[in-house]
């Protein structure tokens, strides 16, 4: 069995890593924005602040 693999350049590897990181940040932020308000309502939290700044997701909760 002869398997031919394409060589991956350094630029392609860096691009792939950055793409995975970007999609991870977007997915995590969307998950937090969608699910946390429902959890806050269920647990009767007074305040819920969710912010995304430069890829850092900050969540502040007041009970």
Keyword list:
single chain; 63 residues; alpha+beta; 1 helix
Description:
This protein has 63 residues and is an alpha+beta fold. It has one domain. The chain is 54% helix and 22% strand. The chain contains one helix and two strands. The protein has one helix at residues 10-43; strands spanning 47-53, 56-62. Strands 1-2 form a two-stranded antiparallel ribbon. A hairpin with a 2-residue loop joins strand 1 (47-53) and strand 2. The radius of gyration is 19 Å and the shape is elongated. It starts with 9 loop residues before the first helix and ends with a strand. The model has no long low-confidence stretch (mean pLDDT 82).
Helices and strands in order:
Blueprint: H1 10-43, E1 47-53, E2 56-62
Antiparallel strand pairs: 1-2
Keywords: Membrane, Transmembrane, Transmembrane helix
Transmembrane segments: 13-39
Protein name: Group-specific protein
What is this structure, in a nutshell?
Strands 1-2 form a two-stranded antiparallel ribbon. The chain has one helix at residues 10-43; strands at residues 47-53, 56-62.
Order of helices and strands: HEE
Mean pLDDT: 82
Roughly how much helix do the residues carry, as a percent range? 40-55%
Q: Distance between termini?
A: 62 Å
Radius of gyration: 19 Å
Quaternary status: single chain
Largest sheet: 2 strands, antiparallel
How many domains, in number, for the residues?
1
Number of strands: 2
Unreliable runs, pLDDT <50, ≥5 residues?
none
Strand order of the largest sheet: 1-2
Structural class: alpha+beta
Output the number of helix runs: 1
Envelope shape: elongated
The portion of residues forming beta strands comes to 15-25%
Protein name: Group-specific protein
Keywords: Membrane, Transmembrane, Transmembrane helix
Transmembrane segments: 13-39
């Amino acid at each position: 069995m002869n398997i031919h693999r394409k060589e991956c350049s350094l630029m392609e590897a860096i691009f792939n890593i950055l793409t995975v990181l970007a999609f991870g940040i977007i997915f995590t932020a969307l998950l937090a924005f969608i699910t946390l308000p429902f959890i806050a309502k269920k647990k009767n939290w007074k305040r819920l602040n969710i912010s995304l700044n430069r890829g850092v997701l900050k969540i502040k909760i007041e009970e």
